[in-house]
Design brief:
The protein has 294 residues and is an alpha/beta fold. The chain folds into 2 domains: 165 residues, Rossmann fold, CATH 3.40.50.300; 105 residues, GMP Synthetase, Chain A, domain 3, CATH 3.30.300. Helix content is 35%, strand content 22%. It has 9 helices and 9 strands. The strands form 2 sheets. The chain has a 6-stranded mixed sheet with strand order 2-3-1-4-5-6, sandwiched between helices. The chain has a 3-stranded mixed sheet with strand order 7-8-9. Helix 6 packs antiparallel against helix 8. Bound molecules: guanosine-5'-triphosphate and magnesium ion (MG). Guanosine-5'-triphosphate binds next to helix 1. One of its GO terms (biological process) is ribosomal small subunit assembly.
Length: 294
């Protein structure tokens, strides 16, 4: 019997949703950083074996939105919960069960879909922490399965995938067996540049960044020529992004090129232009142009 279905991964920002999805797929398809609100779109990936096909949806962290981009992100995450076969709710031990998690669990209380509790980052917690946390969350919601994991170290992730398969219905192969994602190459390129900006910059600047791929061409000798706009929302941010003697922008460019070359298995030339689009995160037209659209 072939089993298949959709699994959405939800939770507050920064709990490790993208890390888990990448770990299961064995490929980095969703960007990761230690800053909350890294993922902005639902990202769909596909895991196929002889016995099953699981389609994962990595989603933006659910939070209280402060601008239209945030509203788009939270709506994307909420929409991902409709018409899926399993909802994976991720949280971390060692923190209080706060308003953020209660809000998410409250929105799930009438769902007929099985909800898994995944307690991630157990590598950072004591056994007592983990046990306490599992007890606390089980009181709050009737989870179908409860799995403590470390997405970073890969601990217990295979157990989690087995439980997913057990809970999937019999179904068809939705996607060709060699397909691992439905996102475009251009999107992955823009995300990799954004990840490097998130990792290079500090404080409030990286959250106001978007990346627009202007050009992506492969020359006859195999080299990729890529040009992107790195968009920020304030004049003062532009200087910070460029940095003293251009150091900061140079680091973003070099780290992005390194990863893109590995991904394309070719030489990459990347040019990054820093542009200011005032308050773009609250501008519906700019949001749409930058790909944050329903
Ligand atoms: N120690 C530890 N760190 C982890 C683990 N999983 C993820 N992280 C780290 O947690 C941070 C956030 O990881 P992400 O995968 O980007 O989290 P996310 O839930 O997708 O975050 P958003 O996209 O912002 O909602 C990164 O610094 C990860 O390296 C884990 O199992 N253990
Ligand atoms: Mg993420």
């Amino acid at each position: 019997m072939f089993k298949s279905g959709y699994v959405t991964i939800i939770g507050r920002p920064n709990v490790g949703k993208s890390t888990l999805m990448n770990r299961i797929l064995g490929e980095k398809l969703s960007i990761v950083s230690n800053k909350p609100q890294t993922t902005r779109n639902n990202i769909q990936t596909i895991l196929t074996s002889k016995e099953h096909q699981i389609i994962f949806v990595d989603t933006p962290g659910i939070h209280k939105p402060k601008h239209k981009l945030g509203e788009y992100m939270v709506n994307s995450a909420k929409n991902s919960m409709k018409e899926v076969d399993i909802i994976v709710f991720i949280t971390n031990p060692g923190e209080e069960l706060g308003r953020g998690d209660r809000f998410i669990l409250e929105s799930l209380k009438d769902t007929k879909t099985p909800v898994f509790l995944v307690l991630n980052k157990i590598d950072e917690a004591t056994k007592e922490n983990v046990a306490e946390c599992l007890a606390k969350y089980s009181q709050e919601f009737n989870f179908k399965e409860i799995v403590p994991i470390s997405a970073l170290r890969g601990k217990n992730v295979d157990v989690l995938v087995d439980l997913m398969v057990q809970n999937l219905p019999e179904g068809p192969m939705y996607y060709p067996e060699d397909m691992i994602t439905d996102v475009q190459e251009r999107f992955i390129v823009s995300e990799i540049v954004r990840e490097k900006a998130l990792r290079t910059l500090r404080d409030e600047v990286p959250h106001g960044i978007a990346v627009d791929v202007l050009q992506m061409k492969q020359a006859e000798n195999g080299t990729y020529h890529i040009e992107v706009d790195l968009i920020c929302e304030k004049d003062s941010h532009k200087g910070i992004i460029i940095g003293k003697n251009g150091q900061s922008l140079k680091k973003i460019g070099e780290t992005a090129r390194y990863e893109l070359e590995r991904m394309f298995d070719s030489k990459v030339n990347i040019k990054i232009w820093v542009k200011v689009r005032k308050e773009w995160r609250d501008n519906q037209n700019l949001l749409r142009e930058l790909g944050y659209k329903k």
